[in-house]
Amino acid sequence: MHGFRTARALVLDNTPAEALPVIRALGSLGIGALYHDASPDAEYSEKIGGIRLMFLDMVLENRSATPDDPANCVSILIGALEQLLEKTSEPVLIVCWTKHSELKEEFEKAFRATFADATILQVLLFEKDKLVEHLPELVAAIKEALSHYTAVSILLGWEQMVHDAASRTTSAITHIVSEYNEDPAQWNALALQVCAALCLAERGTRLLKESEIASLQSFYRALNPLLLDRLEYSPLILDWLPENVAQLLRTAVDSEKIELDKKKRNSLLPVGVRGALNSMVHLSYQVIEGEVSPGNLYFMNEPSENRKSWNAGLPAVDWKAVIENTFGAPNPTEAQVVPSRTSSFDVSASPSSSTAVSGTAVRFIPIRRSGSRRVRWRMPPLPRSVDGPAAPSGRRRWPGTSLATGS
Fold first, then answer.
1. In whole angstroms, what is the distance from residue 204 CA to residue 365 CA?
2. What is the 3-state secondary structure (H, E, C) of the chain?
3. pLDDT digits (tens, 9 = 90+) for 349-380
4. Is the pLDDT of residue 86 over 60?
5. Of the candidates 166, 153, 149, 165, which has an alpha carbon nearest to the alpha carbon of residue 238?
6. CATH 3.40.630.30 fits 2-148, yes or no
7. Which has more pLDDT, 183 or 238?
């Protein structure tokens, strides 16, 4: 049921009756919540991700926790969370149901040790039996916690905007089907026709020679520009953000520009941060082997007419800066930005207008799909040589110039 998994709040309590008022209170704020009783007999094979707000019962009696042993209570709770949650760097705000402040300090220390990459916005204390009647105070406390993390507030607002834009995209397509469908019994048939038309528009007739899964992938890709349209014109979500968040962001922008001009640089970000940001745009390890897609990173044979034609038509590119800004380091010994992405690649500068990856000369070749809005740069799983007709001309986005450029 992945299509309905949109909750960002978790309520953990071994007594469902005590958790229900909190779930109702969150619902009154438009916040959907997951509930779990932390039972040791529950299924924990699939861990939960994307949680931003947690309400935690500090004494899980169904796991033999007792109030007279605070240290054991914390240990048991952390063990339950470790079974439930993915270990990611996602920001989280935690509300603990307890009267004892010493439990909060013990819990926060243990949580940081176990979920070392997570960003704890704040740990709040509320008494369980008074939480609902003091709901406005809780909302105010959450806003206060977010006010100390301006960037997180902005990102969470954008995350909600994406969710809302996706919902409007789905609603728009189903509305089209309903508007032009005359027989309710044929609604699904017409909806499938619409999906098929979008698949062919995205992939073309080559889709007929590909797998069934390729049809599904093509349909989702066709939805991306529709989603982007609605996201670009989404209303800003400001009601729950700290009042001065826009002002703080603008002040940061102004300060950044002043420092850039003063130091005559294109970016104040450390090289590692630039590489990590740009790799989100330029590199991908989800490309299917053998699939020709816009923005793949192709490996061209050294003696190649196609390569010569590209050399003649390429604009002047500082390939050393490209490598540094995309991979986060100018040479292999410094490639430490995103180890999971760079550890298997030998990234080094080359005297020619190319890079060296695992000893293979490579060239960034943008292939622009008709109707696409931007070029994506993707890294195929395995190096391969590709020689064929030159890619069609069009707007190109060169690595290292789109997000965080180098100095």
1. 21
2. CHHHCCCCEEEECCCHHHHHHHHHHHHHCCCCEEEECCCCCCCCCCCECCCCEEEEECCCHHHCCCCCCHHHHHHHHHHHHHHHECCCCCEEEEEEECCCHHHHHHHHHHHHHHCCCCEEEEEEEECHHHCCCCHHHHHHHHHHHHHCCHHHHHHHHHHHHHHHHHHHHHHHHHHHHHHHCCCHHHHHHHHHHHHHHHHHHHHCHHHHHCCHHHHHHHHHHHHHHHHHHHHHCCCCCCCCCCCCHHHHHHHHHHHHHHHHHHHCCCCCCCHHHHHHHHHHHHCCCCCCCCCCCCCECEECCCCCHHHHHHHHHCCCCCHHHHHHHHHCCCCHHHCCCCHHHHCCCCEEECCCCCEEECCEEEECCCCCCCCCCCCCCECCCCCCECCCCCCCCCCCCCCCCCCCCCC
3. 333 333 333 322 333 333 333 333 333 333 33
4. yes
5. 153
6. no
7. 183
Kindly tell me if the per-residue pLDDT of 34 is higher than 70: yes
- Which segments of the chain belong to CATH 3.40.50.2300? 2-148
Question: How many Cβ atoms sit within 10 Å of the Cβ of residue 260?
Answer: 14
- Two tokens, residue 307: 């390569």
Model confidence pLDDT, tens digit, residues 289-332 = 555 554 455 555 556 676 667 666 666 666 677 666 666 654 43
